[in-house]
Each structure stands twice: as C-alpha cells, then as structure tokens.
Amino acid sequence: MTKGINDLQPARLEQALSARGLTKGQLASLVGVAASTVTKWCKGDQSPESETFDRLASVLNLQPEWLTRPMLQPVTPPLYRSNASALKSARAKLEAHTEWAQETALLLSDYVDYPKLNLPERNFTDPEQISNEDIESAAEECRRMWQLGKGPVQNLALAAESAGIIVVRQETEVSVIEGLSAWSVPLHRPVVLLSADKANAFRSRFDLAHEIGHLILHKHIPRTDERDRYNQMEKQAHRFAGALLLPAETFAIEVRIPPNLDNLLILKQRWGASVAAMMMRLHALGLLSDDEKLALFKRRSARWGSKAEPGDDKWEPEVPRLLRRTVELLVSEGILAAEGMPRYLGLSPRDIEKLCHLRENYFATPAEVVELATLRGARGSDQAMRVSSNNQAEVVAFSRFKK
C-alpha cells in the first residue's frame, strides 16, 4: 500500500459516492486522478496523498475526518415503493442518506435521550401470515399506544417522533420513490426517510403511515425482490396506512353512502387524507364494491386528473422536528457550538440543515431558540417538553430529553 492517508475508510467513500450520486469515473475527474485510482481507494488497495485527500473531501463536500471514521452498522435493508431494477443507483442514494440520518441521530444522542420507542410488536415472518384483521388490529393498537383517540390525527409526524421514530423529510431528487423505512441497530429504533419533492401534505402523511405499517407488520420478514411477495407487502402497508388515518369505527359513519366526490372532498380537509385514499379505505371496509370503486375513480380522473386534487394546497406538509429541536437545544445551551457542529457530525452544513430540517445558513447565523427539552444533566427535573401548537392537542408530546 502506498503512503498517504491510511485511515481512509473505503466503505465511507462508497457511501459518499452513493449519497452524491457520483460514479467512480466522475469522482476521479473532479479530484484530478485516474478512475483506476478511485477504484483502488474504494477497495482499500491504495491511499490518497494528503493533498489529494483534502481535495477528495472538498469535492464530496464532507469533513475530512468523516472519511476516516469507522463505519456504523448499516440500517436494515429498506422496502422501496418501486421495485424496478433501473432504480438501483437511486436506492443506493436514499439508503446512504438514511444512514447519514442514523449517524447524525446517534452522535446527537451522546447528549440527549430520545423518546422511548413505543410501537406495537408483531412477529410475522411471512406476509402470508398477515390477515386483514391483523392489519386493522395493529393500526388500532398503534392509535391506542399513541393516545390518538378515534378522530383525525392532527400531526402524524409529531406522533411518530413522540413514539421514538427518527423521521427525516427532505428533497431527494428521486421522485419515483416517495419514502423508505429501516431499523437502526445502533439507535435501537427505526428511521423513516420521506421525499419532500412533491410537497403534498396529504400524500406525505399517507407515505409516513405506510412506512409505519412496514415497521410494525414486516419487521421480521426478510426483504425480497420477488414481485408478487413484494406487492403483497406493499398492499398490506397501504391497508395499514388507511386504517391508521381513517379508523373504521369513526370514519365510516361520516361518509354518505353511496359516497360521492363532493362529500369526500369535504372530509379530506377534516381527516387529512386524499379523496383517493378515502375511496380505497371505503373499498377495504366493504362500503364500495369493485365496480363502484372503479366508477368513482373514473369520475375523479375526469374531474381533476389523476395526479392532483382540489384542496391539496390547504395543508402544509408536516415537518419533522425531533432532530431540529435537538440541534437547537444543544446550541442554545452552549453544549455544542453551531460553528463546530458540522465538524462534529462530519457532514456539510447544508447536509445537516436538510437532514434536521433547519433553516438555511443556520450554522452561520444560529437563531435564538426557546428551550423545549431538558438536558441529560437535569435528570431529576420534572419539567416536560410541551408542543407549542394549538392544533396538536390529540398528539402525545415528545418525551423530555435529559442530559
């Protein structure tokens, strides 16, 4: 092995390539080395010289130290909404960003305690074991555990984070994949990555509910590329999402039978679910036959088209806040300096802003924030974190953080 930065971690370099959507040849051109040299770096057969290493980190827009850290155990293989083999590079990119979210959350957990994981436990090992009744039961139990009542969920992202799920919502530039979920062994909790590219609050809520379904129903089921099995698991997660957002006991009694588009459009704003999602839910509950569902979808398409619905802009997408408030707390308490946090986490300031949903240029000019959590040193304090939203009374607030 040649002289140079011997601590360069090949797996880190591969992960950075995936996250940035670069090929080895493209990276070689940007750094000014031969493509074979980058291949040798990725295999661990050669190390870059100091000057080249600094240029490598600069091109990748990462802290140099990050490239030398041992890799964390990767997240479990996620389930993707699309199973097309052509999406291999897109999958790798999103998986890399999910692992960045895992590492960011883990490093921040040195200073705070996240909410305790609070999810229903299911031990299915094959999707064939899962019945519709099992799915409805799991969704009902989830609502009970999260104290959501039987009405509309005011903020599903807040409820999920309060239950210990790490949620990230960011623009991915991969429009065909709307979300993914995976389990993190180092964090002992799941991570959900949602795409913000389409900026549709109703679809984003359903995507999150869908991923929660995967986390509960399919935790112990091996991932597969077999199309029928994959589609079966997707349908099960879809049914769970409908049951979580639109509980049978209370949603069905508000729907005029036979349903019409105008009635569902009114209910859309109350329940925070698209007309299409409500139509599918009514079909799942046996209130729409196959023919009635098909006819209603045709009328929907004729009136509004297939991609958008009236009122889509009346809800703002739910914004994850657990990681953001953690960063703000550590900065406001002087535990970590804003200017030094990118070096501590190893990513670029913009990467951290996106992962943690911080405002742009936060680390250059951090804003004053109100303390919303308790540092670990205050373990004996009885002060609890309160959610500062008048519209979220039905959602369990975050567990307090402790120093």
Shape label: elongated
Query: Can you summarize the main beta sheet?
Result: 3 strands, mixed
How many domains, in number, for the residues? Answer: 2
What is the helix/strand order?
Answer: HHHHHHHEEEHHHHHHHHH
Please give the radius of gyration in angstroms: 23 Å
The overall pLDDT, averaged over residues, is 89
Number of strands: 3
- SS-based class: mainly alpha
Please give the share of residues in helix. Answer: 40-55%
* Spatial order of strands in the largest sheet: 1-3-2
Q: Gap between N and C termini, in Å? A: 44 Å
InterPro entries: Cro/C1-type_HTH (IPR001387), IrrE_HExxH (IPR010359), Lambda_DNA-bd_dom_sf (IPR010982), Rad_response_metalloprotease (IPR052345)
Pfam families: HTH_3, Peptidase_M78
Protein name: XRE family transcriptional regulator
Domain HTH cro/C1-type: 13-67
Characteristics of this structure?
single chain, 403 residues, mainly alpha, 434 Repressor (Amino-terminal Domain), 3-stranded mixed β-sheet, 3 strands
What does this structure look like?
It is a single chain. The chain has helices at residues 10-20, 24-31, 35-43, 50-60, 88-108, 132-145, 156-162, 201-217, 227-245, 248-251, 261-271, 275-284, 290-304, 322-332, 341-345, 349-356; strands spanning 166-170, 179-184, 189-195. It is mainly alpha-helical and 403 residues long. The protein has two domains: 10-68, lambda repressor-like DNA-binding domains (434 Repressor (Amino-terminal Domain), Orthogonal Bundle); 73-403, no CATH class. It has a three-stranded mixed beta sheet, sandwiched between helices. The relative contact order is 0.12. Belongs to the short-chain fatty acyl-CoA assimilation regulator (ScfR) family.
